[in-house]
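Handoff note, outgoing to incoming analyst
You'll be picking up this chain. Sequence as last confirmed:
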Amino acid sequence: MIFKTISQECSHEKVLRKLFRARCAYDGPVVFDAPLMLIGFTNRCGSNLLAGYLRAARSVTGFQEQLNHDVVAKVAREQGIDSFVDYIRHVSQRAARHGFKAGVEQVAMLHRLGIARMYPSVRVLHITRRDTLAQAVSFSIADQTKQWVSWQPRRSEPRYDRADIDRRLDWIALQNEAMRVASRIYGFAYGQITYESLVRSPSEAVARAATFFGLEPPEALPKPGLTRQADAVNAEFIDRYLKDVWQP
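Most recent structure output, in case you need it:
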């Protein structure tokens, strides 16, 4: 499954190939002076919190989901951009250093389309959660309610679904291992940070993340723009899942 995950075109790549056709891939010399910086993530792993802290370093921009096909298509349409390479140039032009958030399929896409060749090297900082059950429950709830960040309203009330949580636990495990394997196969520098360490000691965790990317750590961290979403419903679903799993 790991090889299948990184060897097949994901939905983002399929749309981008259709959008840009022959102008989707790159096979030329290095364009940028600095490494390609990627926050490798899975849903509900704390990547938005890490990204917000890293953007506090004024020398860096991005670390958003600007590789998603809908975002690329919107910007390309608005700016008259007709190649993926020009899109990468456009979103990276505001600062000397610009990063992206990327799922493992998008990391593979950047390698396959030759975008990684635009940079002297690639650095993948993979954020994970030790408590994958809490992550899977959070993912299940967010997908049902469409409340992906704290400021969004809930469109519906979530319901407990053990099978759905099972599927998300398996998906998280596969995606995380595939991220490690893909980085090694492609020769990308790989680092790892946990959501728990980021919450426990933000300054220390962000300093390590910045150092990995070759950035100066922010002198002071801003207050997070996001608030914790987990509530009594998350705790209830976790408790119900554990009882279901261990029920004689």
